[in-house]
Specification:
The complex is a heterodimer.
Chain A: H1 3-19, H2 30-40, H3 47-59, H4 67-77, H5 83-95, H6 105-114, H7 121-133, H8 140-153, H9 157-167, H10 177-188, E1 191-193, E2 197-199, H11 204-221, H12 229-240, H13 248-262, E3 268-269, E4 271-274, E5 279-280, E6 286-292, E7 303-311, E8 317-323, E9 325-327, E10 330-334, E11 343-352, E12 357-358, E13 361-368, E14 372-383, E15 391-395, E16 405-407, E17 411-421, E18 432-439, E19 445-449, E20 451-452, E21 458-463, E22 476-485, E23 493-502, H14 538-562, H15 573-594, H16 598-630
Helix pairs in contact in A: 3-5, 3-13, 4-5, 5-7, 6-7, 7-9, 8-9, 9-10, 9-11, 11-13, 15-16
Chain B: H1 2-19, H2 22-48, H3 53-77, H4 90-112
């Protein structure tokens, strides 16, 4: 591919990316900021809480009450031999005015000794912080060396964030490039959730402290942090999505991040929101926008303009490059002066005036609402064969027609009207134009839709004969209501226009209208268990049992008569065994019937049967031999 | 008409009692017994109803099965049919009869319920 093709491809790929820039979905509203300040204003009992509360509050721009008392507290709680205690006291004293922590040579030595490769990152950070706040000299290059060594040993996210914070307190002459690179490494470790959130898996506190530390160091060395615009917005979403904070440390981290994002040299995310609903109408012709930073502080130095605005329905452009005017901290634009028709408009708003602004192009949906009036409402009863001329009655809103209209199965009831925009005089086609007929006696109601024709004239016709099923053929007086509604209408209409007496043929016996009995307990189902079958009387079955067994008697008699005998019974063991086995098998059959199941029976049968078979085989063989001999 | 039927029957019975051996008559008596038992079961079913239908079926099929096996036994032990059953001795026929009856009655007992 030659260079021009490559360039073209690059431009094409960038174009859609620019069109879908991310805008912040979470930020600290004024109530969120006050809630955060309340959390940080709680009374503190130790130096660490004092540090979080006082320093956090001052970052949010809140006022710390009673500086003298705080200072006394710091001095009383201070333990000059502990690096942590010195850090908290020193940092807090810097946030309030007129508080000096006394420093001795021992203190200075303890702090300097803590700055070494062998202390933990937290220790180094606190020592350097204390030294810096107390105004004591420190050797920046040594600190950088210690930091670099500790980063190699403690590779977790919190340690590197502390290193960034520490580096922002050192002299600008020191070589902070090595530490500065860590910002990019940490950015790579962030988790992207759905393209909307970017956060560390260690949680909110780590993410917020990272933002604060990264911008602190970047401002200190005046090098733009390697964070893309979208990444900054994703970080904003992650940090400010949580609106109630579990601990002082978490609240402090959010306050630090908010302060860093609203006031640094490189990236200031801007929040554009409409004040109230984004609706304009004749009564309210100006569109008001609030343009603030992430802490809801107004950006008054910015200038806001509408890059383009077009109607959503027709896609026709209505505004282009129109500026907003700043009025008492709010940006206003009189949209009605462009005389837009009612409906929805898509605005693209651009905020300019500061090169640091991030997410400065915002898409906004604005609704223009209006009022509707019904005109030329004509009601008439038309004969179906149109032999008799129609008599049209005009009714004016909001009065009702004086006499009721009567329509039976030979006639149609017709209604026509126009819906007009009060302000522009144009015809409107709202979403909801219904005609409701309400039977006063039975409470029945039937709703129809009135449709506009090609000239935007609404027509409604009721054919009594055709529609009788919807009315359940219930004749009577019906109140006719016209219902007009739409999202862009400020005055929806419910108008009792007239009474209509409908006469239906084949009226069924008027059954009282049953409200839908869907939720009433249903009739109980009686379950019929299977009836046991009728058994014949015991006498009958006993008789037949005897009867069925009687042929056996006959058999014995016959055999006796024939002379069957067991005279040739030989008492050899196999014969006896065979007969015993056979008898056992018959017994097994009986036992099977009464007690056993198939598997057990088969088991016993196998054993007995096997024995019987062998014995029988022997016996029959002997018999065969005997028979052969006899021959 | 009835005369000729009667005379045919009496001739048949006479010839039967003279020509058939005792062994075969014993088996025939057994066959008659089975037949009567089955017929009486069927009669009960017609008169009273099929209430324990599985019991009726098992009883009836027992009769039918036993009848068939006994007929087979009779055919096989009849010396006049020796030519058709050269490899099967009467003892073998009887053993087969006993075995088949065992299987039949096992199934019948299972089904009798």
């Amino acid at each position: 591919m030659n260079r021009s093709q490559l360039l073209g491809l690059l431009v094409l790929s960038l174009a859609p990316a620019g069109a879908q820039a991310l805008t912040p979905s979470h930020y600290l509203s004024l109530s969120d900021v006050s809630r955060l300040q309340n959390l940080l204003s709680q009374p503190f009992t130790d130096l660490q809480s004092a540090y979080y509360s006082v320093v956090g509050l001052s970052k949010l721009g809140g006022i710390v009450p009673d500086h003298q008392e705080v200072c006394q507290f710091l001095k009383s709680q201070l333990d000059p031999s502990s690096v942590d205690s010195l850090f908290f006291a020193a940092e807090t004293s810097q946030a309030i005015s007129g508080c000096e922590i006394p420093v001795s040579n021992e203190t200075r030595d303890i702090l300097l000794a803590a700055v070494s490769e062998d202390s933990s990152m937290t220790q180094i950070h606190r020592a350097v912080g204390a030294l810096s706040s107390l105004g004591l000299p420190l050797a920046s290059q040594e600190v950088v060396g210690a930091l670099a060594a500790r980063i190699n040993k403690e590779d977790n996210v919190m340690a590197i964030i502390l290193a960034l914070q520490t580096a922002s307190r050192l002299s600008q002459q020191a070589e902070l490039g090595r530490i500065l690179e860590e910002i990019e490494d940490l950015t790579a470790r962030l988790d992207d959730l759905g393209g909307i959130y970017l956060q560390f898996e260690e949680g909110l506190e780590a993410t917020a402290l990272f933002v604060a530390a990264a911008y602190a160091l970047s401002d200190h060395v005046d090098v733009e942090p390697p964070l893309k615009e979208d990444q900054v917005i994703q970080l904003v979403n992650s940090i400010f999505s949580k609106k109630s904070w579990d601990s002082l440390a978490e609240a402090f981290s959010v306050a630090s991040a908010a302060a860093a994002l609203s006031n640094n040299r490189f990236h200031v995310p801007v929040i554009v929101s409409a004040q109230g609903p984004a609706t304009v109408s004749h009564n309210q012709p100006t569109l008001q926008l609030l343009v603030t930073d992430v802490m809801s502080q107004p950006l008054t130095s910015a200038s806001v303009l509408v890059e383009s605005a077009f109607a959503v329905a027709t896609k026709s452009a209505i505004l282009s490059q129109t500026p907003f005017t700043l009025n008492d901290g709010v940006f206003e634009l009189n949209f009605m002066s462009s005389q837009p028709a009612s409906g929805y408009y898509q605005f693209t708003v651009a905020v300019t005036g500061d090169s640091r602004l991030v997410a400065s192009h915002v898409e906004l949906k604005v609704k223009v609402s209006t009022e509707v009036s019904v005109s030329n409402m004509d009601l008439s009863v038309v004969d179906k064969d149109q032999s008799i001329g129609t008599k049209t009655t005009r009714v004016d809103y909001p009065s009702k027609a004086k006499s009721p209209f009567t329509a039976d199965s030979h006639q149609n009831f017709a209604m026509s009207f126009q819906l007009v925009d009060v302000n522009t005089g144009q015809e409107l086609t709202p979403h909801q134009t219904f005609v409701r007929l309400h039977n006063q006696k039975t409470g029945q109601e039937v709703v129809f839709v009135a449709e506009p024709d090609s000239k935007n004239l609404y027509k409604f016709e009721l054919d009594a004969a055709e529609r009788k099923s919807e009315f359940d053929s219930m004749s009577g007086t019906y109140s006719l209501y016209l219902i007009v509604g739409d999202a862009t209408l400020e005055n929806p209409i419910l108008w009792n226009v007239a009474d209509v007496v409908l006469k239906f043929v084949e009226e069924e016996a008027p059954a009282a209208v049953q409200p839908k009995t869907l939720y009433v307990p249903k009739p109980e189902i009686q379950h019929l268990f299977r009836e046991p079958e009728k058994k014949p009387p015991t006498v009958v079955s006993n008789t037949f049992t005897a009867l069925v067994l009687s042929p056996f008697l006959l058999l014995l008699i016959l055999w006796f008569k024939l002379g069957a005998n067991i005279s040739s019974f030989s008492f050899s063991p196999s014969t006896i065994l065979f007969h015993v086995g056979h008898a056992a098998m018959l017994g097994l059959m009986y036992v099977y019937w009464t007690h056993l199941n198939m598997f057990q029976t088969l088991k016993y049968l196998a054993i007995i049967g096997g024995v019987t078979f062998l014995a029988g085989n022997r016996m029959l063989a002997q018999k065969a031999v005997k028979r052969m001999e006899k021959k | 008409m009835s005369n000729s039927v009667l005379s045919v029957i009496s001739r048949f019975l006479e010839e039967y009692s003279t020509t058939t051996s005792t062994k075969l008559k014993v088996v025939d008596a057994y066959l008659l017994y089975i037949l009567l038992t089955g017929a009486l079961q069927f009669l009960y079913c017609l008169l009273v109803g099929t209430f324990p239908f599985n019991s009726f079926l098992s009883g009836f099929i027992s009769c039918v099965g036993s009848f068939i096996l006994a007929v087979c036994l009779r055919i096989q032990i009849n010396p006049q049919n020796k030519g058709d059953f050269l490899s099967i001795s009467p003892e073998r026929a009887f053993a087969d009869f006993l075995f088949a009856n065992t299987v039949l009655h096992l199934v019948v007992m299972n089904f009798i319920g």
